[in-house]
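Sequence in, structure out. First:
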Amino acid sequence: MGLEDLLNESAIRLRIRLGCALRRSEDGHALILEIGDGRIVRLSDYVSHYDAAIDGIANGAPLTELRDLVVASGGEWNAIAFLDQVRVLCRTGFVEYPLVETGTEYAVIVPQWASFVPSIAPRTPPVEDRLQRFACVRRSGNAWLVESPLCGARLVLADLSALDAPLVRRALAAAGFLQEARVENDSCPDALKLWEFQDLLFHTHQRRGWHRDMLGAHFPFVGEIDPSPAERPSWPGKRIRLPRAPVDSGGESFASVLERRRTARRFDDSRPISVQELGALLDRSARIRSARVVPVATPTGQSALFEITQRPYPSAGACHELEIYPVVARCADLACGVYHYDASHHSLVRIPASDADVSRVVADAKRASGDEANPQVVLAIAARFARVMWKYRSIGYGNILRNTGALYQTLYLAATELGLSACAIGTGDSALFARITGLDPLVEGTVGECIIGRTLQPDARSPERDAP
């Protein structure tokens, strides 16, 4: 469907999104779009015949009415040129489409894809037709949103009762939100069957092109919430100083370490990892090398100071929100228990935990490894979420998972170089971690785990195996 088709849809109106303005430039030569964050988009040369139509877009009007206003002022040729400018304006993503019938605004269609043009189904869908399985309805401020990663727009409703309005149901059907009752759930393409609802929603919201929400380092809470410190406040208790890694563990090349890296699910139970080796591993992979404060600025010009650190693994925006909690089952010279790794002082602080809780963490890790591993140490990786969420919009949690992957690889390579073995696991019990530590899981919670142990020398009975 093209923009011209809206000339036949009187129930669909065009309106500039809240916080934006369509106006003449200061020098009077250009028609510009002024965006709420201070950006200005030049659309075309200024044409006085557009004035009445520009006012109409500000208040919301059908496209046919806007065109007629330009025709009345400047004739058909100016109206054709004006429609071209509206097309450019719509592609900016700052136009929304109120659905209005008999003077009542039932909903607003907000495009999420650059190519989306709204339409209305020719007839009201039967009540048996329901939302397709990737659609969701959620609150946002005082409004309700209907959205789906498979649809090019979201609908904004002031009241949920508007979902029953025939005009709204026709708009939902035209945008692809509804599934016909006679269509079976398993009739979708195989590629779509493979996706879970939450996975597809998460994936599309991490990438540009599928939504119009703010994305990136916008520092949305500057002036409202103070940023979290780069270094986590120390846990109370006695510090156990850890040995540093040797400056040179043998001179092996990086290429050789990379080639030797394997995921090991079996460890040498007769020789558990030592505290010296655990200290060397954490030194190589997670110790804070330096810290500093940098100024940051929002797109709207607000400023703040943000602490950052430098560590062996990369972190999006230098947030370094990850904390390591070694859960020790067997480690020479270190008691069984749960510890926090203080990356600034390169030390451990023991956290009170029962033997039963330690056993449960270890048992969960073994189960996640396919019941092959007898973990000597489980590194529970937790995130201080505010470190990232304070800086990023839309991609905050995605960045945390990316950072976790970077830490995994660093742990793997450091373990290989030190003669140890590692096995990153895909599932963990965040609720158990919250219970053991007493931490609010919305403030700091686990996002990954990695099993560490001494390498079991391969023989004919224990073939080498990597992660699938």
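Second:
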Amino acid sequence: MRDPHVQTMHYEVSSGESISYRNPEPLSFSNHLGTFDLSDGKLRIVPTEHFPDEDDARRAVEPFLRAWEIEADLTSNIGMVRFKFDRTEVIDRNPPPPGSPQVIELKGASMVLVGGSVSVHVTCSKYPQPPETFRATPEVQHAYRRWLGYRSGKEPLQSMAYFVLTLLESAAGGRKSAARSFQIDVPVLGTIGRLSSTKGDESTARKAGPGNQFQELSGSEKQWLEEAMRRVIHRLGEHASGAPLVLISLRDLPSL
């Protein structure tokens, strides 16, 4: 091809083992990346920009698809939607004269995706909405992977929570600065710090109490910390988008 152009991109759409879709409504929308049409387990994208090959097109589009996957996990159930690259359709914007030889290069590729599971089977009639004010930056993905590790039983809740808290504080230059920057009330961050540092047994606690006494998280404390971390990681992605933020306060979280 003399002037190749990626006309359309195609992805297969799936979900986690415990999530299925029953006659989901088609979903269509446009943004700065292109026009998206999702139906019958297939996603078709018509890019806005000119991309001469598949690799360039995927590098531009797939961070948005990754953000879609992560935000759906954080706001609903793990494994709500997953995108696997299928193929591109490439046209020649400057085709040779009739009868001239043509060389077409085809590439095959696939996405490495993180799966997930939930405790009950969920049947959905709608696909999750695409992200509007959420970005999957490297920091967001670091926090998300630690959260997945906790959800899959590979990491204690406390160590995951403390990692995410220090990630925020390091990015902003301290806890008070993090509270201002990410619009998370200081008492929320303080409670995360306390529960993640002082509660747990000999294998999960970050610090030993006086006389090596350990105190497990209560049921309400565990519920609070789980919900707080889900919101905080989502806030990381919201902050990365540059959108206005609404303060997360203790009133937005379960009672302790």
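Remark: The chain has two domains: 4-126, 138-252.
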